[in-house]
Amino acid sequence: MNSTLKRIGSADAINWFSILSLFFASLPGVLVAANNPNSDRLEDIFLARCISFIPMIALLGMVKKLLQSLGGGRPKPTLVILAFIVSPLVGNGVFESLLLIQNLSEPAFSWLRLSLRVASSFAILFLAGLLVATARDLTRQNYQMNEAAGSLLAIRTQAAERIAFRKSQLLEEVFAEVKLRLTSQNSPRATTESLKQLLSEVIRPLSYRLARESPGNNVSTNLLAGRRDQWSELFRATLGGNPIHPLKVAFLALVIMGSYSLVSGDSRVASNFFAAYAGWVIASYVFRLLWAKLPAQVATGGRAVLFVLGIAAVTLVSIAPVLYPSGSVPAALFAAWLILNIFIFLAVGLVHCAIATLRETSSSLAETLDELKREVISLNNGLRVMQKSMARVLHGTVQQEITLAIKRLQESSNLEEGRQIARVSQERINKSLTQLTQPGIDTVNLSNSLRAFAELWEGSVAIVLNLGKSDLKIIGNRPSLSLVLDELAKEGCRNAIVHGSPAKIVITVSVDLDNRLVEIVIENDGKALEPGVENGLGSQIFDDLTMRWSRTQVGPLVRLEAKVPL
Prior knowledge:
Blueprint (H helix, E strand, L loop, with lengths): L1 H7 L2 H24 L7 H29 L6 H26 L7 H74 L4 H25 L18 H9 L13 H12 L4 H24 L7 H20 L9 H83 L3 H19 L12 H11 L5 E6 L1 H8 L2 H22 L3 E9 L4 E8 L12 H9 L2 E7 L2 E9 L1
Helix pairs in contact: 2-3, 2-4, 2-11, 3-4, 3-5, 3-11, 5-6, 5-7, 5-11, 5-12, 6-11, 8-9, 9-10, 9-11, 11-12, 13-15, 15-16
């Protein structure tokens, strides 16, 4: 029992209550109209019933928002039931008031009847527009967000392949250069000069490039912001196409015939209905063909007028076959207006379902994109760790072996000894190069590294560190995260020193376990931000290694803030 009551407060239950309220509110009008002795007033009765849905729909929308705000998204079941008992009563009150106005036949009240007819036509038009625009928005968002998710999945698949390919590519380049430099020269002196060129032209630039370049994928994705279309936009979206489809009302046949037969006992209802329905199908198909030929340049107002006239023409044509042969005008009017009545009920239900589906799908896909983005950033981090490791191997072990070879070649006394040293050196250099293929696992103590960095600049710039012990413990358990934060902090400081000439820089690192993020904030008191500055390599590094980042002017301080996935 408790679980059932909890379900009543859910968003889906509120939507269904809205739909059922409209449906049950339409039944009294149907019964009154079918048994009304004043058959010449049936048109006014159904017109009043259609118009009474307008305040009821508005009331249901406000009730839904109120219930969700009071209950934090899941209001109490008693409030839900009470609200949707009251709303049909309000609709019926409006219905009775409209009937009272329409029964006033004096000329002074004719403008009221005319305004009610116009309001009814445009209410139906707007409801159709809301349904069509919501369906289009749902399709558009699903397509674009699925496309973005697909592109991120492709990046995820390619990232690991890029790591292996980059390793093999660099190895081939360096091996070829080493072999060329050590075997193409005939004298130790020439070989020595060639190795010096290898250091200056290949090894050092390559290690610098690997240490500095940003090889990752940019995973920033333009997600559609959840916004509510303006009424004018929904209206124009409706008039851009034709929402009338003749087959959409086919399933109403049994409902209309059954309800009218039960409340009126008219044996001619079946033939009258099928005659009216045949006219509806033919006229609506003609209307669709003509609407397709309508020039796109026609203004919104012109389309609105043509649309209302088209609906009126289709309705009149559908009634025409039964006006004179049977003389059953009430039956024809009953069928025509009941179609509109049920159309409103179904349209409201579809709008509720479409909007709920839109929100649910958008939320689900946004979460998927967030997870994919985290994985892509993790792969980018791994790629950078690999490149950092390769840069250190080139700068350390490989450069050491080449330097040693240069020194021994300089000390050689003859050509044969020089060739022997070149062969041995080539083997040693090739052996050192094989370390590039080893997994690039890199670790750094974030606190020690940043303190050493601060000491390096002591006397020129005061670098203050705000690092919590608990945060450092969490970060220390993630080697790649420590390396990323170390690189971001130093890159941010170097950028501030080069471009801002600050006297003081404050680095703050904090962990947000709830959102699985690490926030790094770098503030400096240097020059203010200049407008129109182009992003460079540092900005690319922040794009690749962070979920999002920003650089703003906060009073006298320049604030660089970044979020890194935990």
